[in-house]
Amino acid sequence: MAHAIYVFDAYGTLFDVHAAVRRHEADVGPSGELLSTLWRAKQLEYSWMLTMMGRYRDFWSLTEEALDYAFARVPEANRSTRQALLDAYWTCDVYPDVPEVIKQLKMRGVKLVILSNGTHEMLHAACRSAGIEDEFDDILSVDDIRVYKPDPRVYDMVATKYRVFPEAVSFQSSNRWDAAGATAFGFRSVWINRTRLPEEYDDFRLAAVLPSLDGLLTLG
Question: N or C: which end of the chain has fewer CB within 10 A?
Fold first, then answer.
């Protein structure tokens, strides 16, 4: 492979962030999709705001706070499902392409690393539930430095730990802003555009745009 280290974002890239609401959609009610969209949007917004202000609360706290905000914005959603939704977030569904691609990359001898805003506990729980925990050489959490993506210090965790130049790292994320941050740091960035969103952040060019992880197996 062209790169010795393949780094993956977790939520939205390996794990479906909308799986929790989808599992309980019958109980949540017809506004479940809106609830889930707001939950995710606020979860990320809170992480960006805290980092810009030089403050930190862990990602699980932000996940809880974001869900409470989403319920406040969507009062017709059944709030009694709150705990069930939070419990489900610990075992988010893995995307169908993930296990085989991770296995194939592992067989090729590259290092596989997760780099995520999630806490160590959240990430290990999700990976165990998906049966992919043992495939990764490392699972890195921003908890260790207490800043969130796309702060360059997050991406530097990989370069520093493995003592590699940024260009030796292939970084995969379904979040275009995350891929932009990785590009700015110097990684080879691949946008896994699962929902076929339009391109943005033209100043931070991508090595590739793929609809799923499958394309990594043929990408040079």
Answer: C
Site of tokens 């409470």: 68
Res 219: pLDDT: 87
Provide the pLDDT for residue 2. 66
Predicted confidence (pLDDT) per residue in 33-70, tens digit: 999 999 999 999 999 999 999 999 999 999 999 999 99
User: Which helix (H) or strand (E) element contains residue 120?
Assistant: helix 120-130
Cβ neighbours, 10 Å, residue 208: 16
pLDDT greater than 60 at residue 1: no
Task: Residue 17: name the closest of 74, 88, 69, 78 by CA.
Answer: 88
Extract the tokens encoding 15: 């794990």
Cβ–Cβ < 8 Å for 122, 59: yes
Burial of 72 per CB tally in 10 Å (0-12, 13-18, 19+): exposed
User: Residue 134: beta bridge partners?
Assistant: none
- In the block, residue with structure tokens 């260790």: 144
203 is catalytic: no
| Choice among 9, 93, 97, 143 that is catalytic | 9
Question: Please, which residues have CB within 8 angstroms of residue 5's CB and are 6 or more apart in sequence?
Answer: 110, 111, 113, 158, 162, 164, 168, 169, 170
